[in-house]
């Protein structure tokens, strides 16, 4: 400590203030994270804590990826993905023409997708012509609220699945009820046979 100047900190071009690694190391770690490897494996290679690697990777992604407002898109695809073996879900929004991930949200509620649309902006929302999604009502409500007049396209897997639940099952159950007692066992286990 200098009695006249106090503590003086020199700014170094090769590292950010208060970080324990250089910009060059951060760039190397971020590049390693782009390979198909776990954070733990990258951390082991560079003798860093995995949380440090995660922080470096997150910072690099934030710098590389544009914000939704900077990425106009005509065709969007919205889907949920499972986190921790189906106990928790996230939402992803994709530019279906690019194809590129535009945004990832932490759960699969209507408010989650509305958060994307607020970042995407009114101008970009008005330019959306179609949104592909599964038959999840909260997603549909968010699209209808923010992208007025946009076509909603359901993916074939969910259409067939809904058809199986809502049509084939009802017919199978009603036919089972109508069948003579000795034939009722024939209808058991036929759901997937009837769908094929």
TrEMBL record:
InterPro entries: Transpos_ISL3 (IPR047951), Transposase_DDE (IPR002560), Transposase_HTH (IPR032877). Residues 76-195 form the Transposase IS204/IS1001/IS1096/IS1165 DDE domain. Residues 17-59 form the Transposase IS204/IS1001/IS1096/IS1165 helix-turn-helix domain. It holds the Pfam family HTH_Tnp_ISL3. This is Transposase. It comes from Candidatus Hakubella thermalkaliphila.
